[in-house]
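Dear colleague,

Following up on yesterday's call, I've attached the two folding results inline so they're easy to grep. Please treat them as preliminary; we haven't cross-checked anything against experimental data yet. The first protein's sequence and structure tokens come first.
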Amino acid sequence: MSQPTRIERNGAVMTIVIDREERRNALNEAVAAGITAALDAAEADRSVRAVVLTGAGDKAFCAGGDLQLQSDGTPFTIDAADPRHYVARLLRRMDACRLPLVARVNGPALAGGLGLLCACDLAVAREDAKIGVTEVKVGIFPMMILPYLLRVVPYRRMMELCLTGELMTAAEAVADNIVNYAVPAAELDSKLDWLLDRITGKSPTGIRLGKQALAKIREMSTDAALEYAQFMLANMSRTKDAREGMLAFNEKRAPNWTAE
């Protein structure tokens, strides 16, 4: 049986591919487990500087949850007493990732697929890729991904998407900062590489600690966040990368990052 995800490696970049093209790269528990395992592997490898998430082929980035009618007619089974649903586990793991996560949106990002896009730090998309949440059309609401929609999508735009179930293109999503760049399909990978080059050349230690801090600061009060930020900045200043960065700046040369 083929695995629902696969890993590709190109230098300092690890790409996680949702490999279910026949199901439009729909999300299920095995896909979530595969993405989580890949993130664990990426963080364990100090040579990885960025992670890309994409879908196989060109039909979809991720068309959402792989809905299958249950015996009672419902589209899925969720135990209301169990907070460890696989989608929640996956989104928490993406949140905790200390490496830059970049969505390569090679096709529609729908429902849970939009949730994955919003859980990434950056997104480069085909300009014709459809984006949206269609749950209202089948009598439900995009509950599991709402925290991530609220972070990324402007409120009124989010409500329009949720209440109408209508889709937008990635080109339209650029205006709302839902994706960073939307380009013709033929330029998707070159634009992605351009962005990754700008990331992977920077301090890996600074980025890892910065993302770790940001995940905590997001949940804090302003006063607590400022206190924590001061503590983290003091710690960061003692890293080898910080010392190398300042030395290289003063010597007017490119830094030699060691990820330490």
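Below is the second protein, in the same order (sequence, then structure):
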Amino acid sequence: MAKDKKRKGRRARGTGAIFFSKARQVWIGRRTVGKNAKGKPVKIEVWASTQAEVVKKLAAAGPPGPDTTISQWADRWMTSIDVRPATVNNYEKSIRLYIKPTLGPLKMKDLTIGRVESFGVGMVKGGLQATTARLVLTHLRTMLTTAVRDGLIPSNPCTLARKPRGEAKKIEPYPMSDLVRIIAHAHTYSAGGILALLAACGCRVGEAMGLDVTDFDPATGLLSITKTWSHAHGLGPPKSRHSIRTIRVPSCVVPILIAAIGERTTGPLFATGSGTATPTRPFGIRGF
């Protein structure tokens, strides 16, 4: 007969749950800290080597107050956003590599326009490209916009802060003669169909790789772009709703797409021998 185990007292409602993870060999605590814009609960997770440390971390993870640091707010904000995985990765990279190391210990209430501008200048002086620094500041602004809506700070200092300027790189598009040569020689490459389509229509690589057989109508030459493909996330929605479009493929590329489809009626338009989406990224095509 099994021995009766003494039931431990339950933790007070709202203080979170604590358990030991054998796989990670750490104590883990989880707690609901609020709701996101869609009304769904926002939870945070903390971990430490001892249960006591987790209890302290959970206690500090209450509703944000005037002494909340930028690092603490960043962690909280990342748990509440509902965006594409690729966008989440971009936010996480900006926060981990640039925002936290420099601004992380600073209290939210102490972040000023001047400090934001100094942060931007510092990134560029540290060797970061101006375009990347501007992107990081854009991510910071987005993060702080939520803090304004939550009443944590009265205004967003990133809104008026000047972003570092960089020299615009001159774009050198392929001349028409090169595009014609790319299409003519595309059949000699494993990803030739994609190369020809890019040269003729200028769509994104991921959009071309995300095409299905049913997206192309050989009779009219119309091609529907409704999704994109990447090594990191596979098949998913395009970059934005404006990326969804229907284009007419030039007549010189229609036979190439028909040949890529063959006798198939389903599956990816451009496929490997096994029928899967072409796993290569056809960059570096200047050398045709």
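For the second protein, one point worth flagging: The chain is about 35% helix and 15% strand.

Best wishes,
A.L.
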